[in-house]
Task: inverse folding
């Protein structure tokens, strides 16, 4: 679109560029539908028809000036093909005026504005519109752009002929002189006489119009402010007043006209620096130039139906833009003026052609871009006036959008909202000096839409309440309680209607549009409910009806708010905070909630007592889970049965409270079950600092191999969980896993039993059993899943890095690789796998063994890449290391009886990717390391590369992984490289 509207920059407006003192008032206020044009007061003494004729004169003159073709005088009779005519004459002008009309090509302007071209069909089916005119009793097809513009601007052929005749005389007398160097009304007054008009009255009216145009352009709206010492303005005013009372004589050598010319030219040719300008400024003062330009742009609308933009708008606009030099227009002013014309026509024609509104909105986006770059004071004032009028109209609709819009015209609402938002943003962010001075962080769009939603919903609520009241009076009801119940249903319907129709539109600017709407309704209804509750002294059927209706309404509103906030930044907290609970059931439920609290406290106390006595013995029962779990589930089941025996009509409402309390008890049980057992990171050893090998390190370590193997078992490099480890052994951890799995399965049983009990209550008919709300132990079930995952990882990493530390972390490849293979690791690891297989529940057994495999693979890589200075490798060691890893994989495959080979392959991918590095020659490793390090981190200086950080995510293309392979590479090339590049020590 910007290309269409910015393809011709015919100069910029020469205005002062001060922004001081321009702070538009941004109060939200509606205005009447008959919007006030910001240009309407520019020429108060000139009627619309007079302005239109003056604008047409400027257009014809501008087209003449822009043409390089010689002017030709053509009699009207010849122009009409010799068939009579008006007896006047015509002037052959620029090619643009005489260009043939083409209706086959789609309008680029319409396409850029997002308008439909189908309006042409509408215009033709309505009677031809402006394509044809009646001349001499017969229809004549318009064939040129100039004729179309004349018809669109309601200019008669006689007037057109007279204007062209005068321009021909001007051109003959001032050959080669540009129109920008002339004051057109003055030249016309000089060239046209009484004889050029039908009668004296027409001539005098024409003369008065040109004089009033000079008054508007040079006195009321001058291009430059008048100097206090300059007497020319006062002299011109005197001449014009006298001429309006008694017509002046016109003609080339007329003395009175020469006096007028001298005064006019002295005012029109002023410049900023005081010199005489070659250009004449007589019609380019704000906002007169915009008013004249607006009249020209009106020609873009069908003369028979002003809600339709003509298909020939491209050609018409091309002509109109030729007036830019005379009117001091530029692309930005064109955009602003065209925006207003589109908007004004939409409003003036009954707001039936949404194409105009949509086009205005698209053009406003262009104006927004212009406003960010143009800080001219005059432009900003006009922009502020246009946008304020537009914004006031839009806000009148949006502040009560439930009255203005519905499902059939919702697209219009989106466009109106866009207009309001963009206009407000421009006024606040691009025009307001106060905003820029204080640098306020204001989301204009969000705040505007938020206000529209709240005010419109409040108005809609009041209408619903009046409807309910009138309905009650019509039935002569004395009891007001059913009114609130009926109002709750009305408001619920209003909320869902809001969510379905209006919120999707407003969500573009307000991420919580539906949430704010229901929060407003929630507040309005809550105020009425408080008045009702304050008068309740005892529970009655009517009171229960109102409270239940209020509770249902609140659930509907909260549901809408929650669904609306799913993807919001704060999860909808801001909206939910605006919706304090009604507590509609509080009067009924206080005693029940007290009972629930007592029973839940009892369950929690019982749970804590059983956990304190638990020893996690694998032999406690056949299923190998803790007896305390059985007791906890039993007391929860008894509590649920007692709840459903309570004689209340609100089991579904209060069930979530009970389930929530019991759920927390179970969460507490799960939390204490896994407490102190550690996590994956608990048992992971601390990686030693990077060192480099020495040439004799392998031999040195090999000589002390026997002493290393018989060395006492070193303490783990991680903190231990507890001084007494009896309840945290591997069998005990397996029992904890089984216990959580048992709880998880029994929760499903409890939930199904709860549904059956709920269906047998009196309130079951109004409850949605399929929703699952309030009868599921969601948090404790999730806690079981999370706890099982944590315990599985803790068990696995404890086996590998704690129980097998002496053969794995301390022994594997310590010294010579060939004499410290993986066999001892596999032998002891196999024993722990047998314990797991015989102890862990079959539903989680594979999970635990898989985690053990993952931990083993992690440990294998840690030995190779972070095993400390006791390890050193050569490329020849690769075969042995690769075989060891195959043995480790085979342990978990177990000839097809263990884990699936696909699962083993999945988790061994990293190891299999890193292992080939150990057979790669050192020079290649160094070269690859330098390339990857430079590519990833760059070089800190000429001599030393940055040390790549340890991520723990080993990868053959990761610099730190390559560096660690080099650190454990026992050859001279690696040692020298590490010494020179990082100055790594030989030992810790």
Result:
């Amino acid at each position: 679109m910007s290309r269409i509207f910015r393809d011709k920059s015919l100069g910029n407006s020469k205005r002062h560029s001060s922004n001081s003192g321009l702070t538009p008032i941004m109060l939200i206020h509606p205005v009447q539908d008959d919007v006030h044009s910001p240009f309407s007061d520019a020429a108060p003494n000139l009627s619309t028809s007079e302005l239109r004729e003056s604008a047409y004169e400027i257009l014809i003159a501008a087209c003449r000036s822009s043409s390089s073709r010689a002017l030709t005088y053509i009699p009207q009779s010849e122009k009409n093909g010799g068939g009579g005519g008006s007896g006047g004459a015509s002037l052959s002008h620029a090619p643009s005026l005489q260009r043939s009309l083409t209706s086959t090509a789609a309008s680029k302007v319409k396409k850029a504005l997002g308008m439909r071209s189908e309006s042409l069909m509408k215009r033709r089916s309505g009677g031809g519109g402006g394509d044809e005119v009646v001349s001499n009793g017969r229809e004549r097809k318009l064939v040129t752009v100039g004729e179309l513009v004349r018809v669109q601007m309601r200019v008669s052929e006689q007037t057109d002929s007279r204007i062209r005749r005068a321009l021909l005389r001007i051109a003959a007398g001032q050959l080669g002189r540009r129109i920008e160097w002339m004051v057109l009304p003055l030249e016309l007054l000089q060239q046209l006489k009484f004889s050029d008009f039908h009668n004296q009255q027409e001539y005098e009216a024409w003369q008065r119009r040109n004089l009033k145009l000079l008054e508007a352009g040079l006195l009321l709206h001058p291009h430059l402010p008048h100097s206090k010492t300059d007497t020319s303005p006062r002299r011109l005013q005197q001449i014009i007043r006298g001429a309006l009372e008694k017509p002046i004589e016109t003609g080339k050598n007329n003395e009175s006209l020469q006096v007028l010319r001298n005064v006019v030219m002295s005012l029109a040719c002023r410049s900023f620096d005081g010199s005489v300008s070659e250009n004449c400024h007589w019609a380019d003062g704000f906002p007169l130039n915009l008013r004249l330009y607006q009249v020209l742009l009106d020609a873009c609308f069908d003369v028979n139906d002003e809600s339709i933009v003509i298909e020939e708008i491209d050609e018409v606009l091309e002509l109109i833009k030729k007036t830019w030099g005379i009117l001091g227009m530029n692309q930005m002013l064109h955009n602003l003026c065209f925006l207003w014309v589109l908007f004004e026509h939409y409003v003036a024609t009954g707001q039936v052609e949404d194409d105009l509104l949509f086009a205005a909105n698209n053009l406003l986006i262009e104006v927004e871009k212009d406003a960010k770059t143009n800080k001219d004071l005059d432009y900003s004032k006009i922009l502020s006036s246009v946008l304020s009028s537009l914004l006031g109209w839009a806000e009148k609709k949006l502040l009560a959008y439930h009255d203005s819009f519905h499902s059939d015209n919702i697209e219009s609402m989106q466009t109106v909202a866009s207009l309001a938002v963009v206009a407000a943003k421009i006024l606040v962010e691009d025009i307001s000096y106060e905003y820029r001075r204080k640098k306020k962080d204001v989301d204009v769009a969000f705040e505007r839409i938020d206000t529209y939603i709240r005010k419109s919903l409040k108005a809609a609520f009041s209408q619903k309440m009046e409807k309910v009241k009138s309905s009650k009076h019509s039935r002569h009801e004395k009891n007001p309680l059913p009114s609130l119940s009926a109002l709750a249903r009305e408001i619920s319907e209003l909320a869902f209607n809001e969510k379905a129709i209006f919120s999707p539109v407003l969500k573009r600017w307000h991420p919580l549009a539906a949430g704010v709407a229901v929060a407003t309704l929630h507040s309005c209804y809550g105020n009425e409910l408080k008045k009702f509750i304050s008068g309740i002294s005892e529970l009655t059927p009517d009171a229960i009806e109102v409270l239940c209706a209020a509770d249902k309404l609140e659930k509907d509103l909260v549901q809408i708010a929650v669904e609306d906030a799913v993807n919001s930044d704060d999860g909808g907290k801001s909206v939910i905070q605006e919706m304090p609970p009604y507590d509609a059931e509080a009067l009924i439920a206080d005693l029940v909630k007290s009972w629930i609290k007592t029973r839940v406290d009892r369950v929690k106390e019982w749970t804590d007592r059983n956990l304190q006595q638990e020893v996690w013995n694998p032999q406690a029962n056949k299923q190998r889970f803790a007896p305390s779990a059985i007791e906890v589930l039993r007391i929860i089941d008894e509590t649920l049965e007692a709840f459903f025996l309570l004689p209340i009509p609100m089991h579904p409402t209060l069930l979530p409270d009970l389930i929530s309390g019991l759920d927390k008890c179970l969460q507490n049980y799960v939390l204490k079950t896994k407490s102190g057992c550690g996590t994956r990171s608990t048992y992971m050893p601390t990686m030693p600092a990077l060192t480099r090998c020495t040439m004799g390190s392998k031999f040195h370590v090999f000589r002390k191999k026997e002493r290393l193997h018989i060395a006492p078992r070193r303490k783990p490099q991680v903190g231990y969980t507890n001084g007494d480890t009896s309840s945290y052994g591997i069998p005990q951890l397996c029992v904890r896993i089984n216990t959580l799995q048992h709880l998880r399965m029994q929760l499903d049983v409890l939930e199904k039993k709860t549904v059956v009990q709920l269906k047998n209550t009196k309130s079951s008919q109004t409850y949605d059993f399929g929703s699952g709300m309030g009868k599921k132990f969601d948090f404790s079930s999730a806690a079981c899943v999370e706890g099982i995952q944590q315990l599985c990882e803790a068990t696995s990493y404890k086996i590998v890095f704690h129980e097998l530390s002496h053969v794995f972390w301390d022994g594997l490849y310590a010294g010579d690789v060939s004499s410290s293979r993986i066999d001892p690791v596999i032998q002891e690891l196999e024993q722990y796998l047998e314990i797991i297989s015989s102890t862990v529940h079959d539903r989680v057994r594979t999970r635990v063994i898989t985690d053990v495999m993952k931990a083993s693979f992690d440990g294998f890589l840690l030995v190779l890449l972070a095993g400390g200075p006791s390890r050193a490798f050569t490329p020849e060691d690769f075969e042995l290391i690769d075989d060891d890893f195959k043995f480790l994989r085979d342990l978990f495959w177990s000839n097809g009886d263990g884990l699936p080979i696909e699962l083993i392959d999945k988790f061994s991918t990293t190891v299999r990717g890193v292992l080939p590095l150990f057979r790669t020659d050192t020079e290649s490793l160094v070269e690859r390391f330098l390339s990857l390090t430079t590519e990833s981190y760059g070089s800190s200086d000429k001599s030393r590369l940055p040390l790549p950080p340890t991520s723990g995510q080993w990868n053959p293309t990761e610099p730190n992984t390559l560096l660690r392979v080099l650190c454990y590479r026992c050859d001279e090339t690696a040692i020298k490289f590490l010494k020179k590049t990082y100055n790594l020590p030989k030992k810790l």
